[in-house]
Amino acid sequence: MSSFDPVAIRRDFPTLDQQVNGKPLVYLDNAATSQKPRAVLDVVNAYYLHDNANVHRGIHELSRRATEAYEEARAKVAGWINAADSSEVVWTRGTTEAINLVAGSWGMDNIHAGDEIVVTVLEHHSNLVPWQLLARRTGAKLRYIEIDDQGRLDLGPLPDLLNERTKLVAVSHISNSLGTVNPVREIAEAAKKVGALVLVDGAQGAVHARVDVQALGVDFYAFSGHKMCGPTGIGALWARRELLESMEPYQGGGEMIEFVERDMSTWAEVPHKFEAGTPNIAGAIGFGAAVDYLATLPADEVAAHERTLMAYAMERLGAIPGLRIYGPESVEERSAVVSFTMGDAHPHDISTILDSEGIAIRAGHHCAQLVMKRYGVSATARASFYLYNTEEEVDRLADSLEVVKGIFG
Ligand code: PLP
Fold first, then answer.
1. What confidence tier does 2 reach under pLDDT thresholds 50, 70, 90?
2. 226 Cβ contact partners less than 8 Å away, ≥ 6 residues apart
């Protein structure tokens, strides 16, 4: 008997309890950002109400409290991904900044002309453009893992793609545009054989379940708080301590130094040497609260619930004539995303009509233009699910899509 009740869980999320265009809101844009539980909002509010001070600076009570909460949050987030130590977690603005940090620091020192960076066609622009910029600056070359018709990585050519020139493999854990769950561990094993490092874009990966970065066998893991019940503007980069220690700072400024002389400076300990300037203290504390919240939920039952929702959505949407679903056919190979098109109906029009029914989905290229090109479309409509969504909401989506079908024929 399941103790996880999505209907009860919804009461934790104040935003979900509202009417949009005269209908109860159905929020299915979770891959863009998740809603926030009251537990997170309360913690952020309490920080500003009682403890607001800068961290690691003042020798006074409020600064002590703020610093303690900020570092405790780091330990919680480190625990969520099974980092060996909280010092292996660097706060960033989000996944995008975490990847740019690696490109700007590790990349600029370790990637040279003629080197190769392997990426995949599935990547969000956040895990593509930083590598294009780096390749342009260094004279390195990007090589691609392609996808098959179901949006799964084609690992067949991997032995040819990986060679002694490969310095980095950058791959997403879960595709935001198709929901494909990528075989990251297998890719990491192959990359290790040629001595390449592996960076995982975990923006959609750390969201639905705990991640074990040590077991994955990767070198960098980047993720965002806002997609997993936390605030916007906060995320993290994980890497092993020795690797972080070997890297130059990404930005210079306050907080990241040990001593400053006229001609040179020395750096603070890891992870602080990567955290120049006043950080997003409330955001970090809120991220810690989000992880606390997620940790209270029965992980297996949440996963089962999301899988059931996915299967049901694929079944209901798949039964609408002319609707094409992109991504893996098997629910086991995909996460909580359904991308689709409907004949000649433009995804923006689909989204607009759904909005008039109180249903929020995303339409566009999902920052994954290479995926759109692969399928010869400029955009798709995307419904993405999270733990608080229900089968009734899938029904509302499917019923409204029938209306769209009626309009566009
Ligand atoms: N990578 C993937 C797979 C994503 O889904 C996203 C956000 O949509 C990002 C990277 C970028 O995350 P952020 O905007 O939080 O930096």
1. low
2. 33, 34, 94, 232, 233, 234, 235
